Amino acid sequence: MKKMILVLVIAFAVSAAAFAQSYTVQEVTGRVQREAGNNRVNVAVGDTITADTVIHTGVGASLVLRSGGNTFTVPAARTGAVSELINSDSRVRIGGNITRVETESAGRTGRQASTASARASDAAEDDDIAAE
């Protein structure tokens, strides 16, 4: 029983140390924010953030973090906890199937469809106010 408690205490200490890991912001490019309660706060160079801090990087933005002797880059257009973002694969994945669509004349109609601008110009000709 004592061994089990000791193992649980050690496991808790190791997991707490992993989540308590802190990072120092080395470089910020573009709009990078972190969640602070219900608000978002801009991230600045020199800030210290933890692994469970939720980060939002905008389009064209990036964040460079340093912890110990390691440097990590959070790429643009990402949202999530720091621990997830630095360990994720930053490549864009595109999926789906491409199928051929028939464009034969069977699906086309012979009459012209009017556009909104054509209808608006017709209405302006009929309206006495537009002529004034």
Tell me, rounded to a whole number, the average pLDDT. Answer: 76
Helix/strand order: HEEEEEEEEHHH
- Sketch the major β-sheet: 4 strands, antiparallel
Determine Rg (CA atoms, Å): 29 Å
Strand arrangement in the largest pleated sheet: 4-1-6-7
Unreliable spans: none
Number of strands: 8
Query: Would you tell me the structural class of the helices and strands?
Result: alpha+beta
Strand fraction: 25-35%
Question: Distance between the terminal alpha carbons, to the nearest Å?
Answer: 95 Å
Shape estimate: extended
Number of DSSP helical runs: 4
Fraction of residues in helix:
25-40%
Description:
- It is a single chain.
- It is built from four helices and eight strands.
- It is of the alpha+beta class and 132 residues long.
- It has a domain at 22-87.
- It has a four-stranded antiparallel β-sheet. A four-stranded antiparallel β-sheet has the order 3-2-5-8.
- Strand 2 and strand 3 form a beta hairpin.
- The protein is extended, with a radius of gyration of 29 Å.
Short summary:
It contains four helices and eight strands. It has 132 residues and is α+β, with helices and mostly antiparallel strands.
Which characteristics define this entry?
single chain, 132 residues, alpha+beta, four-stranded antiparallel beta sheet, 8 strands
Please outline the helices and strands:
Elements: H1 2-19, E1 22-29, E2 32-36, E3 39-42, E4 48-50, E5 54-57, E6 62-67, E7 70-74, E8 79-81, H2 82-87, H3 116-126, H4 128-131
Antiparallel strand pairs: 1-4, 1-6, 2-3, 2-5, 5-8, 6-7
